[in-house]
Amino acid sequence: MRSRIIMSMLTGVILLGSTVLGSGTARADASLSLSSASSSSASASGSASESASASASVEVPAEFGTDWHDPLTAAPPVTRPHGKSCRVTLAEAQFRDFTPYRGSYTPPDGCGDRWSKVVLRLDGKVKGRQFDRLGYLHVGGVEIFRTSTPEPSPDGIEWSVEKDVTRYADTFRSARDVEMLIGNVVDDTYTGVIDVKVTLTFYEGRPAATAPDRVLTLADGPGGTTLTTPRNSERVVAEVYATGSGGGCEEYWYLTVPATAPYSCRSDEGPYREVQVEVDGQPAGIAAPFPTVWTGGWSNPFLWYVVPGPRAFDIKPIEYDLTPFAGILNDGRPHRVEVSVVGVSAGQSGWSTPVNVLVWQDPGKSVVGGGLLSHEPGELTDSATYTPGTEHRVDTEGGHRLTVAGYLDTSHGRVRTTVTRALANTSAHRWTDGETVDGLAATWTDEESVTVDGRGPARTTRTHRTYTMNGTTTLGADDRLRTVLTLGDRADSVTTRNGRRTSWSRLDDTYTGDATFTVNVPRDQRQAVGTTSERYRLYGSGGCYDRRLTTRQGVLTGDHGGC
After folding, report:
1. How confident is the model at residue 35 (pLDDT cuts 50, 70, 90)?
2. Does residue 328 sit in helix, strand or coil?
3. N or C: which end of the chain has fewer CB within 10 A?
4. For the residues 327-339, what does the mean pLDDT come to?
5. CA distances, 561 to each of 24, 76, 235, 475, 504 (Å)
6. Is the dihedral of CA 79, 81, 84, 90 positive or negative?
């Protein structure tokens, strides 16, 4: 049981390269399925009366049985503009192994080549027995979507995920190759074939002013990966789809301990992780990775049958504002851009970090010059202290700070951009011999400030991100395994101009779960019980959204919304 207590069931997947809408099951009220939006789409019209009706009409099985409610999340739907739209099928495949789907994309016919919004939708279904799996979708080499899958019921589940992909509009304006993979294993034991269809819906209209002009990928060269930007770039943002995965200990990096501690997942320096971007060997961006928990995580799939953990089905990229380096990048030559994960032991695999680069160009100048004004990398701190005892303990404290400033001489004058990012992580990991009790309380903060000074009064956007994980798995003498877990994804953002607030937002996405089952027995003898909930709150100058879901034994028992 040493590794079984904490390990997810997601195995053997190394990634190369939103919103979840439940579609309902035979046991669930169909009206509820229409209201089950996840972090990227669908109607959010569920109500308490609907959920009361559904729970009353459904007999809750002693086990989770052979069928349960289709996956859904409480996150808001993708908003869609009115007017003409065109739909293109991007990929349609069944995944049985690690063979990628390869196809082609042709721009939509009838909606022009400029769009007010582009929405991706994945519809998936799987039945039988299967682990959770990870997947990616590339168009013209650009990673536009990364996801994981739910674990199926024997009778089968269906789910949908939607994501706003308007930022990749430049990629969609010409014919491209398409590659998609959800790595899978199908044999006599693991029978679930993952069947998916992915579409893009284009909404004709004026493009958003915030959309980038170009979407670039890195090129492989003799000195590593390189980037060549247009010479008139005036804003440059890198996005990294960073995930620890692959079935090894980096899938649970937040639980690793120093090599001196007696635990099943060890790392030379402990659990502190940081995703860094370097430009020509200089640190250009730092960020805390999100501690994603997949749908087999914490050794207890009964936690995830209906509601996944935050971001599990729509894995968001980390964004780095590289505009201070634009003056250097604009010289027309390739520049070395590298991504690394701090804290990973030498030779240890398990992280995937594909990169896209979004570029906004100056329409009034063919060449925009500039330079780096200051570069202040702080000292990285990383301390993991092991304390032996009846209950072993590792206490971790880590952090880092980076400030970079640069200028550009644009067609509208000199513009200075200053980016400051500060990271911090604290955690307390405790476990007993044999790991029959295994618990973690951890917090990650990622604070970012971006100031643009030059176009009128200076504009500053400050974002404070906080990720939390607090849980314990216990294996009793009666072979009953219980997991109690709370996950938090929070962010506060405010933009000021000339000292006055112009916009603000606050996000709080909290998942809680408590599930127990008997291990080392056939499925029909597990006597599983589980309750889960998710509350997603988003409010600010753009309005508000508030929705809460509750489940019991795989049945949706509550769906409450409103501000």
Report:
1. very low
2. helix
3. C
4. 97
5. 18, 10, 38, 36, 22
6. negative
